[in-house]
Design brief:
By secondary structure, the protein is an alpha/beta fold. Strand 5 and strand 6 form a beta hairpin. It is globular and about 65 Å long.
């Protein structure tokens, strides 16, 4: 055994690299094993999120929003431009520079915190040994008192729509198109499908989204989902619910898609690019030797307790590979918690107050329970809502679209959930997360002074509306 560590982390995504840095900060000798290869063929820390997920998609969303504003919205401000064009090479190149900046930043953080990196695929062996298989086939072993499994997730591939990297693509492929497709199909109206579909729609693609479920954004509060769906329809994003895809065949430079509609009738669609975005699954293939004692559930996720311990002495698991939402920030906080528990400190993550965000235009964000969930659980509640159309800052920004909806317990007034669609709600949601973490009530938010004019006033008025006392709208 050549190397013995206090902590070995398998996976350097937002769960793994954060766990490693925090462990090192706490004085633990820490190593990370990761096999991700960047576009340049070199090791790239940061996992899916930094390389082909959260960060690059936000770069393209921002660039495409600027172009869409120039071609559609700036005229409302008196700003015009003749024959605006977008250079896709520069568009993608900007994204790549941002990715390199942040993956390189993780490398620098590892050096600053004396975290040792091993480039290769990690496999947990019995006794907290880790086998590292490099891309050149060389095999080595390291060991630690504690091993944190942070292997992440991978896109789900449909058996009748296999990824070919050219015509049928996953999220990584949709981030690297060399030209705007004339027609783009998307299977799945979730976060990835909506965000990347929006990117290419803004640049001129005719985008059709096929969603198998009968409701649009079934995981979100339906008042918010319906409002978002109306806005996407106005933008020309064609979203078909109850559309079950049955086939996808590449013919020449086209993809011929077969699906059934809400009545079960056969339908067809022909596109130039097909993005399959039906979700992700835990990446645990080859992660565990047979005799480790670590268990997987029926969905291939690592079984853990409320503190992310696997039940095997010194073995923990975090991020997309375990239960809970597959969100980078959830994985990061689990990484901090586990590192602190290993160091003998208290640690906790409240999965009930993890915020969700979809970075479309308008943005969608929520935390806590939906009205539908509360009805099903029989919990008494009251609601309040306030539109961005009545907010001076939003209208001045030409973004008076959407609303904030707040749900509080009917008897205690404790906030149970907040749901938003509108401008910059990815930031506004956090005031509500803090309030819920401190077990706050709608009255607490209603009595806090908010700056004027500010978008956050919509949160304030939604809180007032829970008790039918919003100032700037009828109750």
């Amino acid at each position: 055994m050549s190397d013995k560590f206090d902590v070995i982390v398998i996976g350097a995504g937002p769960a793994g690299y954060v766990a490693a840095i925090r462990a090192a900060q706490l004085g633990l000798k820490t190593a990370v094993v990761d096999a991700f290869v960047g576009k340049d063929g070199k090791a790239a820390l940061g996992g899916t999120c930094l390389n082909v997920g959260c960060i690059p998609s936000k770069a393209l969303l921002d660039s495409s929003k600027q172009f869409h504003n120039l071609t559609h919205n700036f005229k409302d401000h008196g700003i015009t431009a003749e024959n605006p064009q977008i250079d896709i090479g520069t568009f993608i190149g900007r994204k790549d520079k941002i990715v390199k900046q942040f993956t390189g930043g993780v490398t620098m953080l590892f050096k600053a915190n004396k975290v040792t990196s091993f480039f290769g695929k990690g496999k947990l062996l019995k006794g907290n040994e880790v086998e590292v298989t490099g891309n050149d086939g060389t095999v080595s072993k390291i060991s630690a008192t504690n091993v944190i499994l942070a292997s992440g997730s991978v896109p789900i591939e449909l058996p009748f729509a296999k990824f070919d990297g050219t015509h049928i693509i996953d999220n990584a492929g949709a981030l690297d198109l060399t030209a705007v497709p004339k027609r783009m199909g998307v299977i799945g109206a979730g976060v990835i499908g909506l965000e990347l579909g929006s990117v290419w729609k803004r640049l001129g693609a005719d985008v059709t989204v096929l969603e198998a479920l009968p409701k649009f954004l079934a995981v979100a509060d339906q008042d918010i989902a319906k409002m978002a769906a109306r806005e996407f329809a106005k933008q020309g994003l064609d979203i078909k619910v109850n559309a079950k895809v049955t086939s996808a065949e590449v013919k020449g430079d086209e993809v011929h898609i077969g699906y059934t509609d809400k009545d079960g009738a056969a339908q067809s669609l022909v596109v130039d690019k097909l993005l399959v975005a039906v979700g992700r699954r835990a990446y645990t293939a080859g992660l565990l030797a047979d005799d480790t004692g670590v268990k997987l559930d029926e969905r291939g996720r690592i079984v853990v307790d409320e503190h992310n311990h696997t039940g095997v002495d010194g073995v923990w698991a975090i991020g997309d590979a375990v239960r809970g939402p597959m969100l980078a920030h959830k994985g990061s906080e689990e990484g901090v918690m586990v590192a602190e528990l290993i160091a003998g400190k208290p640690g906790h993550v409240n999965l009930d107050t993890v915020p969700w965000v979809i970075y479309t235009e308008p943005e969608i964000a929520w935390v806590g329970k939906t009205e539908e969930q509360l009805k099903e659980e029989g919990i008494p509640y009251k609601t309040g809502a306030f539109p961005f159309a009545a907010n001076g800052r939003a209208v001045a920004m030409n973004e008076g679209i959407g609303q904030v909806k707040m749900i509080a317990h009917a008897e205690t007034d404790r906030i149970l959930g907040v749901h938003m669609v509108g401008p910059v709600v990815s930031e506004l949601i956090h005031e509500c997360v803090v309030a819920m973490e401190f077990k706050g009530s709608s009255e607490d938010l209603a009595r806090i002074v908010h700056a004027h004019p500010a978008l956050s006033e919509v949160v304030h008025e939604a809180a007032l509306s829970v008790d039918k006392r919003a100032i700037h709208k009828g109750n």
